Amino acid sequence: MVVFSRNPVNSVLYLVLTFFCIAGHYLIMNAQFLAVVHIAVYAGAIMVLFLFVIMLMNLNQESEPQKSPLLKLIAGVAGGLFLFVMVGALKGTEQINLTQYGHSDIGLVSNLGKVLFKEFLFPFEIVSVLLLSALVGAIMLGKKEIK
User: Fold this and answer.
1) Which of 5, 6, 44, 117 could connect to 10 by a Cys-Cys bridge, CB 3.0–4.6 Å?
2) pLDDT digits (tens, 9 = 90+) for 124-143
3) 112, 36 Cβ separation under 8 angstroms
4) CB 12 within 8 A of CB 47
């Protein structure tokens, strides 16, 4: 529905729904942290920006330039050839089973927290101080001087 919807706002909303479905797949694969980050970053931030841009552009069907039928045919043939090449390239691949490479609880948030705050505590704190100083610098640069 993202591709076939004629209304750009509906297309963006269908893309948000698609991102939630992808996050559901991450949950099925036992990667809770990745699912939450995916929803926060893509569905929460990037798609809201897309939606605002589309609403600010005020797209009207009358003002849009119409594509010629020959150009639409060429685009369809090129997309079909790309699909054919991708299916041919992925035909002989096999699905990777993550449980054979390590623990089955590899994507749990609790394990990530243990590793982050035990093995990587110092780099984590350095990054937090750098982000805080960048935030303070951005506020100081954007602030108007009072005379």
Assistant:
1) 5
2) 899 999 999 999 998 888 88
3) no
4) yes
End-to-end CA distance of the chain: 55
CA 72 – CA 78 distance, rounded (Å): 10
CA 33 to chain centre: 14
Distance in angstroms (rounded) separating the CA atoms of residues 54 and 11: 10
SS3 content of the chain, % helix, strand, coil (to 5): 70, 0, 30
Q: pLDDT tens digits, residue range 30-83?
A: 888 888 888 888 887 887 788 787 777 766 666 667 788 899 999 999 999 999
Q: How many residues does the chain have?
A: 147
What residue has token string 């798609």? 47
- pLDDT surpassing 60 at residue 27: yes
Q: Is 66 exposed, middle or buried (0-12, 13-18, 19+ CB in 10 A)?
A: exposed
- Indicate the pTM of the whole model: 0.53
Tell me how many degrees the CA angle 114-34-121 measures, rounded to the nearest 5: 30
